[in-house]
Amino acid sequence: MSSLEEADTEETVTCLHMTFYHPCQEEKMMFRCLNFCKKEQVRADETPKFGRDSSVCRYSLVDTRVSRVQFALQFYRKLNSSEYCLEIKNLSKRTKLTVNQIELGYLNKVDLPWKCIICFGDYQVLAEVQEGESVDYFETHLHLAEAPILQERSLPSLQPVPEDGISSSIFLSQGKIPTEIDENE
């Protein structure tokens, strides 16, 4: 038998990619305690916390406006399923946490979608779960965003604008109703 045949089967590992953004990150350096260089292994039975208190939180944010413990992640397997998931729990009594615009109050928790935006205060975090099979641990890979993850978007006008660029609302305000004509007329 070759060494390849005797080797253990390599299992894939669930990896949570988290991209962090704050509008003042360059001047305040609130992410200086986070390791953006490499993936980190987190044991499956650990509950990694994010917050200001570095003695309690695995991922520390250097900002007095962040709660001592802001939120925690829990790796688990769904009942009667082989699917592994992550849930996020808000541990801040003062700051609400939103996950894809779902507001979580203190001690509320929700399954982390495979791709979502987590917000608290001025912080924006894009979280993307890369599925794996490992039961012993998962990995985190932190990234730093240079631009806002969540952009303010103005909704486009619901009224169609014709090719000539003249809005029908002009005609309606004058009491006229626009009629469609053939280009050849």
Structure described in brief:
This protein has 185 residues and is mainly beta. The protein has 3 helices and 12 strands.
Topology overview:
Blueprint: H1 3-6, E1 15-21, H2 25-28, E2 40-43, E3 49-51, E4 59-60, E5 71-77, E6 84-90, E7 97-99, E8 102-104, E9 109-111, E10 115-120, E11 123-130, E12 137-144, H3 168-173
3D architecture notes:
The chain has three helices and twelve strands, in the order αβαβββββββββββα. By secondary structure, the chain is mostly beta strands. It has one domain (15-148): Tumour Suppressor Smad4. A seven-stranded mixed beta sheet has the order 2-12-1-11-10-7-8, with no helix packed on it. The protein has a five-stranded mixed beta sheet with strand order 4-3-5-6-9, with no helix packed on it. A hairpin with a 2-residue loop joins strand 10 and strand 11 (123-130). The model is unreliable at 152-160 and 168-173 (pLDDT under 50).
Number of helices: 3
What is the 3D shape?
Answer: globular
Going across the biggest sheet, name each strand in turn: 2-12-1-11-10-7-8
For the termini, the CA-CA separation is: 83 Å
Sheet-strand content, in percent, reads 25-35%
Q: What level of helicity do the residues show?
A: under 10%
Quaternary structure state of the chains depicted: single chain
The sequence of SSEs as H and E is: HEHEEEEEEEEEEEH
The CATH topology is given as: Tumour Suppressor Smad4
CATH class: Mainly Beta
Please tell me how large the radius of gyration is.
24 Å
SS class? mainly beta
Q: How many E-type strands?
A: 12
Please outline the major beta sheet: 7 strands, mixed
- Mean pLDDT, nearest integer? 84
Subcellular location: Cytoplasm
Protein name: TRAF-interacting protein with FHA domain-containing protein A
GO biological process, one term: innate immune response
Keywords: Cytoplasm, Immunity, Innate immunity
